[in-house]
Specification:
The structure holds 2 protein chains of 2 kinds. Helix content of chain A is 42%, strand content 18%. In chain A, strands 3, 4, 5, 6, 7, 8, 9 and 10 form an 8-stranded antiparallel sheet that branches. A two-stranded parallel ribbon of chain A has the order 1-2. Chain A is of the alpha+beta class. Chain A has 11 helices and 10 strands. By secondary structure, chain B is mainly alpha-helical. Chain B is 50% helix and 10% strand. Chain B is built from 5 helices and 3 strands, in the order E-H-H-E-H-H-E-H. In chain B, strands 1-2-3 form a 3-stranded parallel sheet. In chain B, helix 2 crosses helix 3 and helix 3 packs across helix 5. Chain B is globular and about 30 Å long. The termini of chain B are far apart. Classes of the chains: A alpha+beta, B mainly alpha. Chains A and B meet through helix 6, helix 7 and helix 11 of A and helix 3 and helix 5 of B.
Chain lengths: 296, 115
């Protein structure tokens, strides 16, 4: 997704259009076929699980994965490890690993919740330890994960008139390990309104406008980047302002990055350069993806 | 009892062993092992029975900021403690890996009392 952001987001946008506006899955027999997919990142895989979770809730039935013998083996294995086929009507797919990539990247089974169930963050860390060995940054990852799901529960679904298709506060979470790069990744995703949309509610928009010299319009990427910068620069803020510094604290101690993709914006903080790079895209990601990635 | 006087011992609370290895969010409504639950079911009862308590932070997965703020900042608000009274009643112990949370707790106590 980092490499093909626009294509990935366009796929999800089209899937939502077909699913909820054109009701395509209700009208005809459909299966899930990813034989055209050659590679999938952990973040995109988590988004896919979230979207299919919502779609099945909308339809009131489970969908089948089809033509799996034509799928790329590494994609099949990643989605199997993620637990996607347990979510679908075809749980046995991918059980026999025929991977041709020697299992370079392993991913943990995704979890879903709608409360600040921190014990699930502990379970994720246990699963990550199983595939990556001892994790020396586990308390900072734990803090970041719980902070991210807390923000999701309290702020992500804050638009009362908007249809989300999942219970208030719903979050999705997974982790992965790249054995070649020795890179550990953890990710939280929600299907909410997006951080740029919730910032005015947390009372810091005016400060951000001063930093950014924003007019009445706004730029999602700049808003996320400014919220990151604001969080770091205001460490004595009362409780609300501590969320982002805690989410970023991992990067004070380990080499890696924090990437937040939310609404139409994207911002990445790199621990080496200590710089935040931001981008704004044409289409919304349809929620918020927070991804930490560190070198073990 | 010694010479008719009740001796109030210093109680040691290890959060991982005595409460939860996975501290949660702020309020009970957020989910299990919240800061509010820790304050109300562990901290305050312990302070009612002891002059001072020692809190050991090591052993958990980590600490969400809202858990710490509600547990310790909330305690200061609830019992109307000054920073000196807090320091007198509660000693926080942590290894170097958990020392960052001692600083967090101190910041929450200072912010709360100076608010």
């Amino acid at each position: 997704m980092k490499r093909n952001h626009d294509e990935v987001v366009a796929f999800f946008s089209r899937l939502r259009q077909l699913s909820y506006n054109e009701d395509a899955f209700s009208k005809r027999r459909c299966g899930i076929d990813f034989s055209a997919l050659k590679r999938i990142s952990p973040g995109a895989a988590l988004m896919l699980a979230a979207e299919l979770y919502r779609l099945q809730k909308f339809l009131g039935r489970k969908l089948k994965a089809v033509r799996q013998h034509e799928w790329d083996q590494s994609v099949l294995r990643i989605l199997h490890e993620l637990g996607l086929f347990d979510l679908l009507e075809t749980p046995n797919i991918g059980r026999e690993d025929q991977s041709d990539d020697n299992g370079r990247v392993s991913i943990t089974k995704f979890m879903v919740g709608s409360m600040v169930t921190a014990d699930k963050c502990g379970v994720l860390l246990d699963s990550l330890s199983d595939i990556a060995g001892a994790i020396h940054a586990d308390n900072f990852i734990y803090d970041g994960l719980t902070e991210a799901i807390k923000n999701t529960v309290h702020h992500a679904y804050s638009e009362p008139d908007q249809w989300f298709g999942v219970p208030q506060g719903t979050w999705f979470m997974t982790g992965s390990y790249d054995r070649v790069d020795k890179r550990l990744t953890a990710a939280v995703f929600d299907l909410g309104v997006g951080i740029p949309h919730t910032l005015p509610r947390s009372g810091i928009l005016e400060h951000l406008r001063q930093i950014l010299s924003l007019g009445l319009g706004s730029d999602d990427g700049k808003m996320i980047a400014a919220a990151m910068e604001y969080g770091r620069s205001r460490i004595m803020l009362r409780e609300r302002g501590r969320g982002l510094p805690v989410i970023m604290r991992l990067l004070d101690h380990h080499q890696g990055y924090l990437r937040i993709v939310s609404g139409k914006g994207e911002a990445t903080y790199d621990s080496l350069t200590k710089q935040i790079k931001e981008t704004s895209h044409a289409e919304s990601v349809g929620g918020t993806l927070i991804e930490w990635s560190i070198k073990q | 009892m010694i010479g008719g006087m009740k001796i109030m011992a210093e109680k040691i609370i290890n959060i991982a062993a005595d409460f939860s290895r996975t501290p949660g969010g702020r309020y009970r409504t957020d989910g299990p092992a919240s800061g509010e639950e820790f304050r109300e079911s562990v901290l305050i009862p312990a302070l009612e029975e002891n002059n001072s308590i020692v809190i050991e932070l090591d052993g958990t997965r980590g600490y969400p900021s809202s858990f710490l703020e509600e547990a310790f900042g909330g305690l200061v608000r609830r019992l109307h403690l000054s920073p000196a009274e807090f320091a007198q009643k509660i000693k926080i112990k942590a290894s170097s890996a958990f020392n960052i949370y001692v600083q967090d707790i101190q910041a929450y106590v200072d912010q709360t009392t100076h608010a």
